Write the structure tokens for this entry.
Amino acid sequence: MIVEGAVVDVDGARPAYVRFRKGRVVEVGTPGTDSRRGTERRIHGIVAPRPVNSHTHLGDAAAAREPPRTRVSEVVGPGGLKFRLLASLSPAEKERAMRAALERMVREGVGAVVDFREEGVQGVEQLRRAARGLPIEVRILGRPTQRPVEGGELSRLLRVSEGIGISSAREENPLTRTLLADRTHRAGKWFALHASEEVREKPEVYLLPRPDLLVHLTKATPDDLETVAKARIPVAVCVRSNALFGRSPDLSAFARAGVRLLIGSDNAMLNAPSIFHETEFAYLSGRLLGHPVDPEYLVRAAYVEPWLWLEEPGRARVGPGMAGTPLVLRLPPEDPAYQLVTRATEQLIVPTGAD
Ligand SMILES: [Zn+2]
């Protein structure tokens, strides 16, 4: 099969054709120059690395009601509605809902997800079971249940997870954060936290100890964003989740500061885990609120930057020998980044033969 149109990847967007054999990319070049002129099935479309959902809490996927119209901390903060709900559900109910959420991401072509899983070792193991056999990489950042942190629990958690993802610097004292970050880094894993979501926090607080990933920065100032960009720490934004609580990060300011942007869909109880919806909303809300953001920046955040963060650069470039399979969408090739950001849907995905 030959897809003629455009490629969007780590090298940007360009007119191109991509030839597939048994689902793998075997040839990429300028349109009209392929080696099989007229002898192979040919479609028009855009080829890109698979999108990554860089921030989720799939543990609360079993709750699907309209979120209450109140403060974010009362809904998903420690002790809030979400944690009462998690405590009331059986492990089997949570596991079923998490699997359904993962299956939805697979249908939308998502290649990997980075989840903040609460509920300690048990929570991580539930998500692992839920993901069994699905063609999606699930990277789990766990959270210890005991405070003060109990060494045994933390060791067990670091054995089963890809690292630690905590609530925020406001909710965890500096000693706890330092202990968690040190132990996590010594284990060669990721340490991540939410920052400046409901109110502004100072970068010197959330950057110490040094995290590998920040989430939100909804309330960050342009100076804060520059500090984070200089530290080269990627930030996963969740614009639909923020919108539910009346907030909107100015992603054009993130772009100007040079922040390494990632995109996530946040709590599954708030929004469906769809990166297509997330990028579309990010683009449109920027236009609506008078701070438009370039679709190229959003495409990079959803389809490219996370693979670099996950240390899988081979999945960020569409070319012969590419690791894994790319995403093919029946979309027009004009302004391909704009097409991907605003018009991608599950229905337009073309199977390449390996799916
Ligand atoms: Zn979160």
